[in-house]
Amino acid sequence: MKGFVFYNDDFSPEAIAESGQCFRMTSPKEGVTELVALGDVLRISDEEEGGFRFSCDEESFEKKWRHYFDLDNDYGRYREAVLPDDEYLKNAVSFGKGIRILNQDPWEMLISFIISQRKSVPAIRTSVERLSEKFGKPIESELGRRYAFPAPEALANASEEELSSCALGYRVPYVRGAARDVCEGRLNLSECSALDTGELIELFMREKGVGIKVASCIALFGYHRLDVVPVDVWMKRVIDDIYGGELPLEYRNYAGVIQQYLFNYARLVGLGRGE
DNA sequence: TGGCAGGCCAATT
DNA sequence: AATTGGCCTGCC
Asked: Helices marked H in A9-105 — which ranges?
């Protein structure tokens, strides 16, 4: 059987797919996860004894996917550093073991999270998928034909009608504006990786349709700024209801990771302490 | 079946 | 500086 088998007990593709940080990763059936990312298609299947079979060769795993899934980072140390009396977070990290913060493409994050406002996760998936089918480059794979996330030029040159047909609603001008800024050099997505986190967020907030929450998602998921906490309605509930208005300062250097465990747990399990 | 979605913008105090 | 209404439309 071809592919490359990887062993790690702190890696759960299915948990990542449901964790709300990515929109093109799904589990068609138990033990199988498929994704389109970085212009490529990948399938991950559970193997015996906690292994994962990646549908790629070892070289592409080492060069591409190891970094994409942040597999060299030890998430155990984050979970072990949970404060002893922080019961809710203890439950959250235990429940969310295997979640990682992906290293996704900043451009895809910019557009995906502009689209995400006032949308449910399934609705976001629908929009991103339609955009890709309409404007993305086809990728022939063993899973069939898939479509890469569209290039900036493709969205910058798209008509309003074409974009509207992807269920973007009032976000059409936001998406097109951001695409044009990237294409025409007003927003350089490579150069801004040199900025410090505050400047990075500030820069993205200059885009129409990008506020503090969306900019924070771009910083965390597109630039791997693990100290950034995107505060959406769920995180607001957690921060207010569980922590009385502020996350403990002890977690500040990796608060984005803690956020991901908390967000995931609150959304999938609930806000009650005992749950 | 209507209300709600992982917000943001612009107008108004 | 802080508050509030309006916004497209898919999904449960």
From this structure: 13-17, 58-60, 66-68, 76-80, 87-95
